[in-house]
């Protein structure tokens, strides 16, 4: 791993752990072992490094989200995604940034965060629409609204887990969301043949 990659990886971890405001260039240099000259050669400002690190954190979430797309049964994909093991006590790599005032007030830092959530919402909307089209969810379900709901469950689950210092609230929130989806699923109509038995 070259010095640039090491700086980005280190900053990505520190953003996840501490946020932008509480991470200094010195923190990055000390943890990465990269010298000041090399750091400023690759990244003239802390913000430049943070943008690259945010992109890395976003990229690390995409493989899991890509599991929502595919040829398999859409409800099976949704269930696998919601039950996928996560370190809930560390929170979301991207959602963590929305709690940082300096990120919220800086368009250059907020833009990749906003884009990541927009992309995730589109992915969720697509798989939920597939579930409706396949008859796995009721036709009256609005995939756009439900996508926001499920994303809010995930982000809220992280908050609850961190507040309690216990991953169970996150796990139970995801399981509860699945319970609601299964409860909403249309039940097969009893055939005329079955009714005559």
TrEMBL record:
Ranges where the HTH tetR-type domain occurs: 1-61
PROSITE patterns: HTH_TETR_2
Source domain of life: Bacteria
Coiled coil: none
Keyword Transcription belongs to the record: yes
Keywords per UniProt: DNA-binding, Transcription, Transcription regulation
DNA-binding span(s): 24-43
Keyword Transcription: yes
SUPFAM superfamilies: Homeodomain-like, Tetracyclin repressor-like, C-terminal domain
UniProt-listed PANTHER family: HTH-TYPE TRANSCRIPTIONAL REGULATOR LMRA (PTHR47506:SF3), TRANSCRIPTIONAL REGULATORY PROTEIN (PTHR47506)
Protein name (record): TetR/AcrR family transcriptional regulator
Protein's organism: Microbacterium wangchenii
